[in-house]
Backbone:
């Protein structure tokens, strides 16, 4: 009976964590470039149940085992995986807003790769984002809303004299008659190996920079000035998934209540001495 309690409890914990993940997706539905998270559920290792039988006279050491079958001991949420599908483009008409438009982006193991803007974190290690809602700081540098510097292909900060610079489809920036540089777009052939950081940022496990997408074979893309990429969260699907998770949580809760009543009856009634 206690195995059933543990199994139902693990189901409640898993659905609670899934609900928290879905709630976070809904909270970022208006965050530019946000990639919705997906969960993977996995059962605990299955136990093989066997019946032991002692043959012969009492105290003999000879025993036989008869297989009964498998027993699952619960479920857990193994991990959350970002969904690297491009979101819809939203026009803002702000010169410092840029959006990546994926073309051909091949990846490892038959899956698609992913492209990102490269920014410099205060810890000196590059981070990667799809959020092109950039701005200009007091010194004229192009930054994210969190103050991280947007990098060019030489890993230098991009400095402009005004927010009216022109950004071409290949990422090249011209400030009046001056050629400033080219926004660094990086390529990850296996984006699922990246670690998710705060504020929708990603980083490599060892801190090594990703390769330049413009130099990667068979990779195509373009940059759209005056646009930002919207979140790829599907609100209707997310709400449906939240309802399913809530109903699953309730079902496991009712199972625990049923076990609790059975245990109460076993203690208070079956164990009563008459």
Residues:
């Amino acid at each position: 009976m206690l195995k059933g309690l543990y199994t139902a409890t693990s189901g409640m914990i898993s659905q609670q964590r899934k609900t928290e993940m879905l709630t976070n997706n809904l909270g970022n539905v208006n965050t530019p470039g946000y990639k919705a998270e997906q969960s993977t559920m996995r059962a605990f290792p299955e136990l093989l149940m066997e019946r032991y039988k002692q043959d012969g006279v009492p105290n003999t050491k000879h025993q036989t085992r008869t297989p009964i079958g498998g027993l699952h001991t619960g479920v857990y949420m193994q991990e959350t995986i970002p969904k690297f599908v491009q979101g819809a483009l939203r026009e803002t008409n702000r010169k410092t807003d840029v959006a990546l438009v994926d073309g051909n982006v091949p990846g490892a193991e038959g899956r698609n790769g992913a492209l990102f803007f490269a920014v410099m974190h205060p810890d000196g290690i590059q981070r990667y984002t799809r959020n092109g809602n950039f701005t200009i700081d007091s010194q004229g540098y192009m930054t994210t809303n969190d103050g991280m510097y947007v990098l060019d292909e030489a890993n230098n900060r991009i400095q402009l004299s005004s927010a009216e610079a022109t950004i071409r489809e290949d990422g090249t920036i011209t400030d009046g008659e001056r050629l400033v540089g080219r926004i660094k777009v990086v390529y990850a052939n296996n984006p699922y190996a990246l670690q998710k950081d705060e504020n929708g940022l990603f980083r490599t496990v060892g801190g090594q920079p990703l390769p330049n997408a413009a130099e990667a074979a068979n990779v195509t893309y373009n940059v759209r000035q005056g646009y930002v990429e919207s979140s790829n969260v599907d609100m209707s699907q997310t709400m449906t998934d939240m309802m399913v998770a809530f109903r699953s949580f309730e079902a496991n809760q009712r199972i625990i209540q049923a076990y609790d009543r059975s245990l109460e009856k076993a203690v208070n009634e079956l164990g009563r001495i008459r």
The first strand starts at residue 37 and ends at 43. The mean pLDDT is 89. The radius of gyration is 28 Å. Residues 89-229 form one domain.
